[in-house]
Amino acid sequence: MAKIKLEYIWLDGYYPTQNMRSKTKVEEHENFKGTLEEIGNWSFDGSSTKQAEGGSSDCILKPVAIYPDPERINGYLVMTEVMSPDGTPHPSNARATISDDDDDDFWFGFEQEYFIMDVATELPLGFPRGGYPKPQGMYYCSVGGLNTHGRDLVEEHADLCIAAGLNFEGINQEVACGQWEFQLFAKGAKKAGDEIWVARYLLDRLTEKYGYYIEYHPKPLGDTDWNGSGMHANFSNSILRTCGDKKVYEAICEAFRPVVKEHIEVYGEHNEQRLTGKHETASIHDFSYGVSDRGASIRIPIATVERGYKGWLEDRRPASNGDPYKIASRIIKTVKSAKI
C-alpha cells in the first residue's frame, strides 16, 4: 500500500471574484491509477469560505477531474465542484450550469493573461519603486534581460502544466512590462474550465518559492497607458467548425449584440477599467465584430476565413480574473440562441 496525496481544489463563495482553496487528503492505495473512480467526496468548513453558516457549515467536494501533481511524490491535483449537503450544486458552483449535452459539442481555448508581481515592492516585475520602466513597445514577445522579466517562473510553470497532463498550448510575454500569457485548449467547456483553474493553481503555488504573486486584476496599473489583462475566449461548436458560410458566422455574432450586459456581468470584476476602446479592446458600452480585428468585441480569426468560414470565434472581452465556467456557460447559451 502506498500513501497518496490528493490535493482537493475548489472555488470559494466570494463574490463576484471567487478564490481557489485547497487542502490535502492522504490515503492509502494499492496500485493507484489516478482515476476519479478511485477517490471519493470530501467535505470542508463552508463558514470559512462564505459558502455556509456556522451552525450548518459542511459543504461537499465532488471530484470532477484529476491530474498528476508534478511537484509532489505520489501526488495528485483534484479539481472539484462544491455541492450542498443534500447533493445539489452549491449556488457558488458555476461548473454545474454547463449541461453535459452542450459540453460535448463546444470547444474552448482560453488565453490567460496576468502580471507577475514582486511581493517586496507590490509592483510588476521590471517596475522600479516610485516610477515606471520604459514605455510599452519592446516587451511583447521580447527576449533578453533588458525587456524580459520572470521567464524562469513562466518556463517552470509551463513544464509543470505539461507534466500534469494539461493541454497546454503556449506562452508569451505580453505588451506590458512583467505581463505574460499562457494558452490552454480543450474539447469540452467543463474540461477547459477545469484546466484553466488547475493551471492557475499551479502558477499561484509556484510563486510561493519565488517571492512573487500573480495579479489577475484586469487593469492593475489603473488609469495609465499600460495594457490591462484579459482572458480571450476562443470557441467553436460543430456548426462553426463545419458550416462554411459567412452568413452563419454573422448570425452567430449578431446573437451576442442584444445580450452585452449579460456577458459583461460574468466576464470578470473591474472589467470596465480595461474595456475602454484603447489598448486593443472594444469599449464596454459597444458591441462589434470583424475579421482579424483585435479592437472588436468578437474577432473572426483570419484562419477561419481562409478555411472558408470553418473554424472558431474569439470573444476578446473576458477579463483575466473571469471564471472560465461562467464565461463558457454564457457563450454557449448565446450561440445556441442564434437564428441560423
Which descriptors would you attach to this protein?
single chain; 5-stranded mixed sheet; ATP-binding; 340 residues; Creatine Kinase, Chain A, domain 2; nucleotide-binding; alpha+beta; 9-stranded mixed sheet; 8 helices; Ubiquitin-like (UB roll); Glutamine synthetase
Mean pLDDT: 96
SSE pattern: EEEEEHEEHEEHEEHHHEEHEH
What structural category do the secondary elements indicate?
Answer: alpha+beta
Tertiary shape: globular
Q: What portion of residues is helical?
A: 10-25%
CATH topology of the largest domain, what is it called?
Creatine Kinase, Chain A, domain 2
Number of strands: 14
Query: Helix tally?
Result: 8
Organism: Yeosuana aromativorans
Subcellular location: Cytoplasm
Domain GS beta-grasp: 4-87
Keywords: ATP-binding, Cytoplasm, Ligase, Nucleotide-binding
In short, what is this structure?
It is found in: Cytoplasm. This protein is of the alpha+beta class.
